[in-house]
Amino acid sequence: MRTPRMPHSPTQRRSPALRLIQPRVAAVLVVLLVAGGMTGGNCAIVAPPTSGSGGTSSTSGVDDDGSIRRPAILDSDHVLGDDDATLVIVLYEDYQSQACGEFARVGFPTLQEQYVDTGKVRWVFRHFPLSSNAQAEPAARAAECADDQGQFFAYRDLIYETTDTNNATILTDDTLREHAETLELDQAQFDTCFDGDFKDSRVQLDVNSGTALGVTNVPTLFIGSERVLLPDDANTAEKLIKIIERHLDE
């Protein structure tokens, strides 16, 4: 099974001061985020039980009582849908994953029209670049750079719409820069952001939250408190509709 990308080593181009969050620091960050949620702030996951209450802090995403931890929406999240929507769905995706691309192009538009645009669902998008996909993390950073100019969703759409003859997304650095030009972003600002390591920690924040929730592959969704690894077939939307309807009826 594929694993998420790990932070760059000190010998690579990234500055040590802005390097991606290391595992021990990431653990502290998750604790702080949980604490923030308990005091009225935002957190990446619902706080797991403490050791004194028989809980576990493992990365399985499942507590000792068998319940799956559910995500909570962060201020930094990319969200579509009404604030008052009945159901929240969180998607962890990798731009280089063909399954994610297929879902983005074929499955999601149906679900967006039926549930997001009608105010029933809030849909949250999070990065989870896998270690086996070398261009997934740069693409995620590029999307975050586009977000600085208010164009995250338009940029994400361009990523998934730009494919080769095998229907795989084209994620070369030149292509990622061309997307910024297509959207008429401030190219100098985008290039400075993309060429630096300003968005490493932002992408890693999503990876950390996914790992804490037990995500190991993509595309993975949390529909309410239910974790779903999307099937790679033509009936993905149809299968998800059944799950979504069940949660909406609860």
Please characterize this protein's 3D structure.
This protein is of the alpha+beta class and 250 residues long. It has a domain at 77-248: Glutaredoxin (3-Layer(aba) Sandwich). The protein is built from eight helices and five strands; from the N terminus they run H-E-E-H-E-H-H-H-H-H-E-E-H. It has helices spanning 23-38, 98-116, 136-147, 152-161, 173-182, 187-195, 200-212, 236-248; strands at residues 78-80, 87-93, 121-127, 220-223, 226-229. A five-stranded mixed sheet has the order 1-3-2-4-5, sandwiched between helices.
How many alpha or pi helices? Answer: 8
Gap from first CA to last CA: 33 Å
Q: For the report, how would you describe the main beta sheet?
A: 5 strands, mixed
Quote the CATH topology of the domain at 77-248: Glutaredoxin
The shape, in one word, is globular
CATH superfamily of the domain at 77-248: Glutaredoxin
Give the strand line-up of the largest sheet.
Answer: 1-3-2-4-5
What share of the residues does DSSP label as strand, in percent? 5-15%
Low-confidence stretches: 6-59
Q: Class of the domain at 77-248, according to the CATH hierarchy?
A: Alpha Beta
Estimated radius of gyration: 18 Å
Structural class, by secondary structure, is alpha+beta
What is the tally of beta strands? 5
Estimate the mean pLDDT confidence. 81
Helix share bin: 40-55%
Properties at a glance:
250 residues, 8 helices, five-stranded mixed sheet, Glutaredoxin, alpha+beta
Topology of helices and strands:
Blueprint: H1 23-38, E1 78-80, E2 87-93, H2 98-116, E3 121-127, H3 136-147, H4 152-161, H5 173-182, H6 187-195, H7 200-212, E4 220-223, E5 226-229, H8 236-248
Parallel strand pairs: 2-3
Antiparallel strand pairs: 1-3, 2-4, 4-5
Helix pairs in contact: 2-8, 3-4, 3-5, 3-6
